[in-house]
Design goal:
Blueprint lengths: L7 E6 L6 H10 L3 E5 L5 H18 L4 E5 L14 E4 L4 E5 L9 E3 L3 H6 L5 E4 L4 E9 L2 E8 L1 E4 L4 E2 L12 H13 L3 E4 L5 H11 L4 E6 L2 H5 L1 H7 L2 E5 H7 L4 H16 L3 E4 L14 H12 L4 E4 L1 H4 L4 H16 L3 H6 L10 H16 L3 E5 L4 H8 L6 E5 L2 H6 L6 E5 L6 H14 L8 E7 L8 E8 L11
Parallel strand pairs: 1-2, 1-16, 2-3, 3-12, 5-6, 12-13, 13-14, 14-15, 15-16, 17-18, 17-20, 18-19
Antiparallel strand pairs: 4-10, 5-9, 7-8, 7-11, 8-9, 20-21
Helix pairs in contact: 1-2, 1-12, 2-4, 7-9, 10-12
Length: 480
């Protein structure tokens, strides 16, 4: 099943997409990676969905990536008398840690860490930014605020503290349990919420210990201030525009989206653009034209993947949402301007043998009109490096490790294949041409460019390049 596009699709599973028939339909419609959102559902729910994904994978004969998305710290106010209270503009409103129901004058904020970080003049955003409070006084675990933008505040609404680095770990006790459960299941990617600083990524990497790729969700302005350091430390990035758009002015989000994508491409790290991409399709069978343009912008910018959240998890039209996203991506990538825009900012290779070979492969493939660039990789690093330059030629990533094949399903343009290991470069070239032909990339007589590292099994040691003609000097290998 060779996709007709380069940008990948991530879809969230939920109540609307938890049976095998629907998961199969979503995969066939274009999903490359399925997201399990640990903010909702039980471990039993996630295991059932994971097992169904693996059944679909086995039947389709194609690697499918599974992304577990951890909830992270959720800062919320407490409950209210009559379940809500109306806050008037200009009124005084207090936040404290008292275990009492709130009213129009006060509410419980059960997070001491927030009080420790607050200063006079700090703004607090409640209920996704619909209500804005400004701190006028601090007294231990009590903050007096002025209501700048009022409204009805109901039970357990979220709290954002823009511009403040909170003394909180990105991993709660729930996250630690969820992470271990997801890793035992076999999830390929672990998305870390509430990343504020590089140390958050370092903590997660230590706990994951190589069992999955670590993905940093960028949703806090403090993370953007240390973008380079975070991208260097993580394996992939998600532009989580929901919370990012709450804590920053909306007009800043598109600018940051482009900056994050550009930084990730420079470092060769996969980047997903997420949140509200086809939001209308939660309840309607078609998106708005603005939403179609939003998806298109991410594709033109060279994002590795675009993501569906509620559209596929709880919406009324999950299949239609995936189909529409697939159509948008295919249409944009057929635009003659697409690759020109993707290559507008040249990504220079690093001064290493591996980058030199990968960059050369791109240029050689153009010169000889190769039908595919085939990378043989044990860790995925060779394929990640090849995708970094966004070549004009399709990428075929071969690996003897099924977990690596699944991880590569998230990477721009990479068609991953799990195959047997090889013992020589000649054997690998023959295998590469056979699989390239079998997977529909080329026919006999076509050329492919093959890269790999010798000795085999050495991570990041790409040091060989070969131009091979399909059909020449191949030995039968029926189980390639």
């Amino acid at each position: 099943m060779k996709r007709k596009r380069l940008c990948k699709i991530v879809a969230t599973l939920g109540p609307a997409s938890s049976d095998k028939e629907t998961i199969t339909a979503l995969f066939e419609a274009g999903v490359d990676t399925f997201r399990l959102n640990f903010s909702h559902g039980t471990h039993a729910d996630h295991k059932e969905r994971y097992d169904l994904i693996r059944e679909v994978e086995k039947e389709a004969g194609r690697p499918i990536a599974v992304l577990m998305d951890l909830q992270g710290p959720k800062l919320r106010v407490g409950r209210f008398v009559n379940d809500s209270a109306e806050l008037a503009n200009g009124a005084t409103f207090k936040l404290d840690m008292k275990d009492e129901l709130g009213d129009a004058t006060r509410a419980t904020l059960p997070h001491k860490e927030i009080f420790d970080a607050l200063e006079v003049g700090t703004d607090l955003l409640l209920d996704d930014g619909r209500i804005r409070l400004r701190v006028t006084a601090i007294n231990g675990t009590e903050a007096t605020t002025e209501v700048v933008v009022g409204g009805v505040l109901s039970n357990n609404k979220g709290v954002n503290v823009p511009g403040v680095v909170l003394p909180l770990s990105a991993l709660t006790e729930k996250d630690l349990l969820d992470m271990e459960f997801g890793l035992e299941l076999g999830c390929d990617w672990c998305a870390l919420s509430f990343v504020q600083r590089p140390e958050d990524v370092m903590e997660a990497r230590k706990l994951v210990n190589g069992r999955a790729g670590v993905m940093a969700k960028l949703e806090k302005p403090s993370a953007i201030e240390q973008l380079e350091a975070i991208v260097e430390l993580t394996d992939a990035v998600m532009v989580a525009r929901g919370d990012l758009g709450v804590e920053l002015p909306p007009e800043n989000v598109p600018v940051l989206q482009k900056r994050i994508i550009g930084t990730c491409r420079e470092h060769g790290k996969p980047v997903i653009v997420a949140t509200q991409m086809l939001e209308t399709m939660v309840s309607a069978p078609t998106p708005t034209r603005a939403e179609a343009s939003d998806v298109a912008t991410a594709v033109y910018d060279g994002a590795d993947a675009v993501m569906l959240s509620a559209e596929s998890a709880s919406g009324a039209y999950p299949f239609e949402a995936v189909t529409m996203m697939n159509r948008i991506i295919e249409t944009i990538e057929q635009d003659p301007l697409y690759l020109k825009l993707v290559h507008a900012d040249e990504i220079l290779p690093n001064p290493t043998e591996a980058d030199a070979i990968s960059d050369a492969a791109r240029h050689v493939a153009d010169l000889v009109n190769a039908k595919a660039i085939v990378t043989f990789t044990t860790t995925g690093s060779t394929a990640f490096r090849a995708a970094r330059g966004r070549p004009n030629t399709p990428l075929l990533g071969l690996t003897p490790d099924l977990r690596v094949a699944r991880k590569m399903s998230l990477v721009w343009g990479v068609h991953s294949v799990n195959t047997r290991d090889v013992s020589s470069f000649g054997e690998m070239v023959g295998k590469s041409t056979r699989i390239a032909r079998r997977e529909g990339f080329c026919e006999n007589g076509d050329k492919v460019v093959v890269t790999a590292g010798v000795p085999f099994g050495t991570p990041g040691a790409t040091n060989n390049l070969r131009i091979a003609t399909v059909g020449q000097h191949e030995k039968p290998d029926p189980i390639s």
